[in-house]
Amino acid sequence: MKVWVDGSVFENNRQYGIWRVFYEIMSRSQRDVDYTLWLRSEPKQPLPPGVRIYQDAGRVATSRVNLPVRLRRRMANRCDPPELLKADLFHSSGFTFPISDSVKGLITIYDMVAESHFSIGIRELEESIAIKREAIARACRLPCISKATASELAAFYPASANKACVIHLGAEHLVRAETTSDTPQHADNGSALFLGNRSGYKNFQCVLAAMQTNVWPNNVRVDVVGSPFSDAESALLIRLGLADRLRHRGYLSDSELVRVYRNARCLIFPSFQEGFGLPCLESQSLDCPLLCSDIPVFHEVAGDAALFFDPRLGENLAMQVDQVGNPKVRKELIERGRSNLKRFSWDQSAKQMVQLYHEAIS
Known about the structure:
This protein is an alpha/beta fold. The protein has helices spanning 16-29, 67-76, 113-117, 123-138, 147-156, 173-177, 204-211, 231-240, 254-263, 278-285, 296-302, 314-323, 327-340, 346-361, and strands at residues 2-6, 34-39, 52-55, 89-92, 105-107, 142-144, 164-166, 192-195, 222-225, 246-250, 266-269, 290-293, 307-309.
């Protein structure tokens, strides 16, 4: 079975969660699938070991005056590689498709954020909807990463609902990155942890609102992992009197992230919407208590191993940050998290994806 995978998520360092899905599943299923990873610019994320690579200049960024590279890019986008036309299936990591419709295509659906939150003013979200709609209509199967996402897909695109199925993600990738020198400390009065993008539906404002309440524990600060604070964010933190209570950790490797999880008081996940919420499982796999929004997908993924809060109310979050300082509560959350993880496995995800490939081809 020959499957070509569009490698766009390997070409940037912004789509960590989507990259993780393809890296883990491809790494585990290549004995059953003859993969070709189609790269169209230089990779910025690790590639699945042993996978065949096809590379052209279809997405290479270049200056307007670099005519040779621009010409190669244009030529690469005028036709499909001959080898691609011999594939049994094309799996897009975004919403791309070959020019030819002779190869069956499959698209993983991560969320319906663009459709639900285009009004928050992020231009890329609104512009992506038309591209996404066309890709969904063209795909022969639509694996969704959660039941919540599959339900939202059916609501926004009812004509395509019969093509959907659910393949959950795994949790063991960070445990694999842990070394024997990593010694858990679990300081009850340590830092709460926030990961990733802070704009829009990610709702970082809820964290700031919580920290300004009288309920937030005085000795608890927040470690922020991800992009640097913008000038506007830095000015806001000074204005709110929070600049000394948040510590920016930057981008972290897997082994560094393990230590941060292990030493954190808790993970705060205040999103208004997510497709799955991979950090839920990451935190549980590393005995980091989870605090997350009271939304359907987090109940699906986290089970009963989290403290939930209303993402509209900073005081509600502050109460849970205070509550997780109770050793009994912390111990119970960690034990429930370990039990919850038994429902998720990258090996199982890979097995289900291979089965779906066979169904799509037949």
